[in-house]
């Protein structure tokens, strides 16, 4: 990351950590790994790097976005997923679809992030059928 990107990654780490993630999953791209490094240092979590949510895998047809989403929903552990602009709408659309919803204007906006922004999708811990119950997008600005 450039200096600005490093500052942004450090700036959002505490905000993301406040949601109590139990897992960090990142694209294998250097910029994604650098983005989650401050969060990993703050939380003590080990980053699981995967090509399955990388832009290269998406463009090459080898990504496994449905599989990643299915595992996250099944495990019900608060997780951070760090990916790329072109991948985010597909990730969020899969979370909506696999939890019984569909991509709407709120989710489309939540998947169109500026650098340094992050979106939190909230799911019910007691009612799996409830789907996405709230969406928050946070910015450093």
What does the model show?
The protein is of the alpha/beta class. The protein has one domain (3-138): Rossmann fold (3-Layer(aba) Sandwich). 45% of the residues lie in helices and 18% in strands. The protein contains six helices and five strands, in the order αβαβααβααββ. The strands form two sheets. It has a three-stranded parallel β-sheet, covered by helices on one side. Strand 1 (23-27), helix 2 and strand 2 (47-50) form a beta-alpha-beta unit. Helix 1 (3-17) packs across helix 2 (30-43) and helix 4 (65-75) crosses helix 5 (88-98). The radius of gyration is 14 Å and the shape is globular. The two termini are 19 Å apart. The model has no long low-confidence stretch (mean pLDDT 93).
Helix content: 40-55%
Number of helices: 6
CATH homologous superfamily title = Phosphoglycerate mutase-like
Task: Estimate the mean pLDDT confidence.
Answer: 93
The CATH class turns out to be Alpha Beta
- What is the 3D form? globular
Intertermini distance: 19 Å
Main sheet overview: 3 strands, parallel
CA-based gyration radius: 14 Å
Structural category is alpha/beta
CATH architecture: 3-Layer(aba) Sandwich
Domain count: the total is 1
